[in-house]
Amino acid sequence: MTKKLLLLAFTLGSATSLLPAQDGQRPPDHDAPRMHLLPRGAEETLNLTDEQRKRLTDLEADVKTKIESILTPAQVEKMKGMRPPARDGQGNPGPKPAAAEAAPAAPAAARPALEEASAAPAKPLPAGVTRVPVVLSGGHETVPVDHGRPVKLIAAALGVEDEVFREAFSHVHPAGPGSGGPTETEARANKAALMNALGKLGISNDRLNTVSNFYRYAAWEGGIWKNKPATANALVKDGVIVGYEITSGGYGYTTPPTVTTPGVKGAPAKAELSFGKDFETNGAVSAITPVQGGVASSSN
Questions:
Q1: CB 192 within 8 A of CB 208
Q2: How confident is the model over 21-44, as pLDDT tens digits?
Q3: Does residue 82 sit within a domain?
Q4: Largest Cα–Cα distance of the chain, in whole Å?
Q5: Are the CB atoms for 259 and 269 separated by under 8 Å?
Q6: Are 284 and 227 in contact (CB under 8 A)?
Q7: What pLDDT, on a 0 to 100 scale, did the predictor assign at position 266?
Q8: Pairing between β-strand 269-274 and β-strand 284-290 as defined by DSSP bridges
Q9: Residue 189 lies inside a defined structural domain of this protein
Q10: Total domains present in the chain
Q11: What is the DSSP string of 141-154?
Q12: Looking at the whole model, is its pTM more than 0.90?
């Protein structure tokens, strides 16, 4: 009986996925101290009575006690600081968090010059030229067919074209809102569908998990995927913008952000993005170029 309870706790305690989460499914609250035997949200979905909730809580406490009786005191203390494993895009246990298993860094020469400049002191400016901080807004739009997923970033991190990933993902069936996440059979089928298309391109299961986990986000809370805003200055002389200086390219942009310079008229500009396998520069602002007036090239 004890073995069955432990297996149930392990199997059902964190059954959610990244990609269904982007369709509105909330992932588990890993900070909750209670051990859950049912998937998150199941108690509300099943409309349990107060008596059922109490019996379930008592059962969970009993399982927790049995687990702790098996472990040594040191192991119990260590377990208290542990969290459930991250889930991959189809509800299966994922690899170590992206921070612990970072994507291979791009060669220094391939990184946008803006990232290199951000760590260096500001360059001296010509006489009469001043820096004015610009405002970069937006830049996180997606096309309707992707249903809010940052496909451009995911595809670039995997090293494939956008359409290649879209085709692979078209065979996946994410769990809908309130479903409690995909079943084990559904999760296996989704993973097989993705790997069947992407594995032949040299993409490993671990890499797919790492990329999926990195770009997981809480869409139901109005959030977006991991990103870092870019920062830049307009170079102004005699009230006219003569160029731009990027101090940090940021990352996580899917579309070029809008560039404005408060207090300076004219010289509208456009931002350019760069994409690649390195999370810290994937979707970075690599250049800002005046589209009329001023100098038709960016200054990095």
A1: no
A2: 444 444 433 343 456 677 656 666
A3: no
A4: 81
A5: yes
A6: no
A7: 65
A8: antiparallel
A9: no
A10: 1
A11: ---GGGTT--HHHH
A12: no
The pair of three-digit structure tokens given for residue 65, joined into one six-digit string: 């006690």
Q: What is the pLDDT of residue 73?
A: 73
CA distances from 7 to 98, 185, 288 (A): 27, 17, 55
d(CA 165, CA 158): 9
Q: Where are the alpha helices (DSSP H) in the chain?
A: 2-12, 18-21, 42-45, 50-70, 73-80, 113-118, 151-158, 162-169, 184-198, 205-214
C-alpha distances out from residue 110 to 277, 286, 298, Å: 11, 11, 18
In a domain, 262, yes or no: yes
The gap from C-alpha 15 to its chain's centroid, in whole angstroms, comes to 19
Instruction: Print burial letters for 256-267: b (CB count within 10 Å at least 16), e (below 16).
Output: bbebebeeeeeb
List the strands of the sheet with 284-290, edge to edge.
135-137, 258-260, 269-274, 284-290
Q: Evaluate whether residue 166 is within a structural domain.
A: no
What is the span of the domain harbouring residue 277? 108-141+226-290
**What is the 3-state composition of the chain as percent helix, strand, coil, each rounded to the nearest 5?**
35, 15, 50
Residues 6+ apart with CB under 8 A from 69: none
- Whether the per-residue pLDDT at 190 is higher than 80: the answer is yes
| Distance from the Cα of residue 285 to its chain's centroid | 18
Please report where in the chains the tokens 């203390």 appear, as a residue: 77
Strands (E), 178-294: 231-237, 240-248, 258-260, 269-274, 284-290
